[in-house]
Amino acid sequence: MTEPALPSFPDGFLWGVSTSAYQVEGAVSEGGRGRSTWDTFCATPDRVYSGHTGEVACDHYHRYPEDIALMSQLGVDAYRFSIAWPRIQPEGTGPANAEGLGFYDRLVDALCEAGIAPAATLYHWDTPQPVEDAGGWLSRDTAKHFADYAALVGERLADRVAMWIPLNEPMVTTVYGYGIGQYAPGQFLLLDSVPTAHHQNLAHGLAVQALRAAGARQIGTANNHGPIWSATDSAADRAAADYASDLLNWLFADPVLAGSYPEQLHPLLPTGFAEDLPTIAAPLDLYGVNYYEPTQVSAPSEGNPLPFDLGAVEGYPMTTNGSPVVPDGFRQFLLELRDRHGSALPPVYITENGCSYDGVDDQQRIEFLDGHLRALHAAMQQGVDVRGYFVWSLLDNFEWSKGYQPRFGLVDVDYTTQCRTPKSSFHWYRALIGGTR
Description:
Radius of gyration: 20 Å
CATH architecture: Alpha-Beta Barrel
Number of domains: 1
Structural class: alpha/beta
CATH superfamily: Glycosidases
Shape: globular
Helix content: 25-40%
Number of helices: 14
Distance between the termini: 27 Å
Strand content: 5-15%
Largest sheet: 8 strands, parallel
């Protein structure tokens, strides 16, 4: 049975695609780029599937003109990419590396020439290794170093970049990188990782200041979000769900939007955290939501050092990356965000939404995107001010600890030949975009 046509989105609604530096660029030893925590993590045995690394990835560093041509064919309004901090400051501090800035200068110019708005993310988890060696996000100094880096990039690119995202998904760095060790830098601190959230939030606020001083416009954030579902209606499970939502959602949204942290997390934060909240809560032009799936939790089992157990979300189709496909969770969270923050919530952009499926004739990805866009439209009809949508991802790419197994791209990449082949979902998205104009 054919689904009815998607509902109409407003005139001027922005359609885009996203990637990130370590996942697509390759060229890790070229152009004066320094070593990152992900280079180190990938070189550590048993950290990444089958020893995969981002050393070559999609070779976007050399092939970006071909990839921009694909974006032009797709018809997108904007391309959200990330800038590799180790390319700009190989040691994480000091003057800018001219070759590194030059690469992004050429990329931004080529996008502008193609009529595609550059949307730049300053940090997508690839910390310079010397910064990590000095304490990484456990150190308050890292926020100051990040602000210096933001100033260097802003001074060079602010005149042409249309949208700025200082940090992508700080929750992932805190929880997966420092909490449970599944991502770089691979530490296992559990709740002792929470100070890294505050230091990233502070880095965000300081970067907003630096970017505005450089003349940047349209500055926001990109937080990973999703509804947290209680396994049952028991008081213990509901309390566990509230705690998990505070940790995974509101630890990152509340300080940016409301200048506060969830009260039950205060004991985990660094001493004097409240003094930084005015900086963290600097007004934004947009708020980015990355949505993939809901999470189900229950009261902690005996011996669990965390205040909740994670459980499987059952009864839904699954992607090849093991994620449940729950479009209505998207709508639910957007309404929850709107209800929690009200008029303090700036216009929302969906800065990532996508899925992993195999094959070039990827009908399941089309069904996923179709369902999530319908859920997004429903949230907009219920009053959430959403201005744009970026698919994750333009290209199949290096998917962190899972290596090259998951296939998130609208474009298939043969990692041996670097041949790009648009998938069925590419053509579907192209038709969707074309139909809105």
